[in-house]
Amino acid sequence: MLVRVLLVKNKMIVLVANTSWSVFNFRGGVIKRLLNSGCFLTIIAPADEFSDKLRAMGCNVIDLQMSAKGTNPIQDLKLMYTLYGLYQRLAPDFIIHYTIKPNIYGSLAAKLAGVPSLAITTGLGYTFVNSNLVAKVARGLYKLAFRYPKEVWFLNEDDRQEFLQHRLVPDYKAMLLHGEGVDLKHFAPQFIGRVETEINIAKPIRFLLIARMLWDKGVGEYVAAAKLIKQRYPQTIFQLLGACGVANPSMITREQIRSWEEDGLVTYLGTTDDVRPFVADADCIVLPSYREGIPRTMIESASMGKPLIVTDVPGCRDVVIPDQTGLLCPVKDAGALAHCCETIINMDAEQITKMGLAGRALIASKFDEEIVITQYMKTLNRYLS
Which of 158, 193, 286, 288 could make an SS bond with 309 (beta carbons 3.0 to 4.6 A apart)? Predict the structure, then answer.
């Protein structure tokens, strides 16, 4: 390990993403390891409330003006030249890009600036869920840009194969990273829910969906399943946790969520900086998403010993062993989702606990943050040596 530390010591590493929030919440462990190894770390991302938290960790943070979902080609070219100018001024030793626009325009800017880079696709999103003109253009841009990074990492094998089949990335560059890792100590089982502490008292089962409030996350199917379940099990609780009204073509408005609440279908919990109390209080965590990279909230919830219900789609299926750690259901099928919820409702406390602990074991073997950090460090040492 000493050799690895020395190779990154005094090197300038730059991370580029579409939000400071995602850098802080998803890559905090990697950042700590890099800083402790003696490198200089700069974060380039749009400013938000997490920018100062990154500075407090010891990072240099640069505000990036970027519309993550915009499709204006002039603005995108401006983004590329902005990044090119920053890379020339900073003269980093290595750059890591996350999400679609930094991956495309950042990779091109890094090539122009003569700086080696790594691209990490955190999920394919609308690029592959849809087949419209914007998606086709995005694929073409990926193919152009991904000629230049040293490696391109994918969070699940389905996404990697999708890029290879479309010939968007050379085979020798396409690597697999099993999610972005979870801190097993931070997301530890806390058996404080009703199932454990009040085992002899009949309590309604509590389902929880944690995600941005988007149709593509399967929120509509979740609400429809709640309506079906409540016809037979009216006391069952369905909760939503996550931001609504976000800038996304698949956005769900606060007014829509309020309408569901007024109908008695769901309870909206808003947003939080710490999901653990909400996860601990739930019996089962649900994500009926149309497609994911690796759903962070699902590996965090499984790490806390909670059973999962997820759709049988790329990314989601990677975090569940069917009928052992959770349940898989077909995508965009509210009836099937309701059936999965009913299966959980009819389990006893011992079965729910057993399923949750099996999920914890799966996460420890496959998604431990230390595994992810080791891959980062080995890769950086390989290209910085």
Answer: 286
Residues 260 and 143 in one domain: no
Q: pLDDT value at position 304?
A: 97
Read off the pTM: 0.86
Which distant-in-sequence residues (6+ apart) come within 8 Å of 276 by Cβ?
Answer: 186, 187, 190, 304
- pLDDT at position 130: 61
Are 280 and 163 contained in the same domain? no
Q: Quote the pLDDT of residue 134.
A: 73
293 vs 154: CA distance, rounded Å: 8
Same-domain pairing of 211 and 156: no
160 & 240 share domain: no
As a whole number, the mean pLDDT across the chain is 91
Range 99-103 contact pairs with CB under 8 angstroms and sequence separation of 24 or more: 99/17, 99/18, 99/22, 99/68, 100/18, 100/68, 100/125, 100/127, 100/138, 101/18, 101/66, 101/68, 101/76, 102/16, 102/17, 102/18, 103/142, 103/145, 103/146
CATH number of the domain at 323, please.
3.40.50.2000
Average pLDDT, integer, range 170-199? 78
What pLDDT is recorded for position 193? 46
| Cross-strand pairs, 240 | 209, 268
Q: Are residues 205 and 351 in the same domain?
A: yes
Residue-range definition of the domain harbouring residue 289? 194-366
Taking each helix axis as running N to C, give the angle between helix 296-303 and helix 349-366, from 0 to 180 degrees, rounded to the nearest 10.
120
Contact 260, 266 (CB under 8 A): yes
Please state, in angstroms and rounded to a whole number, the distance separating the CA atoms of residues 23 and 28: 7
Residue 2: pLDDT band with limits 50, 70, 90: very low
Q: What is the pLDDT of residues 307-317, one digit of tens each?
A: 999 999 999 99
Are 51 and 79 in contact by the 8 Å Cβ rule? The answer is no
Angle at which helices 219-232 and 334-345 cross, to 10°: 50
Whole-number Å distance between alpha carbons of 30 and 39: 12
pLDDT the model gives residue 196:
43
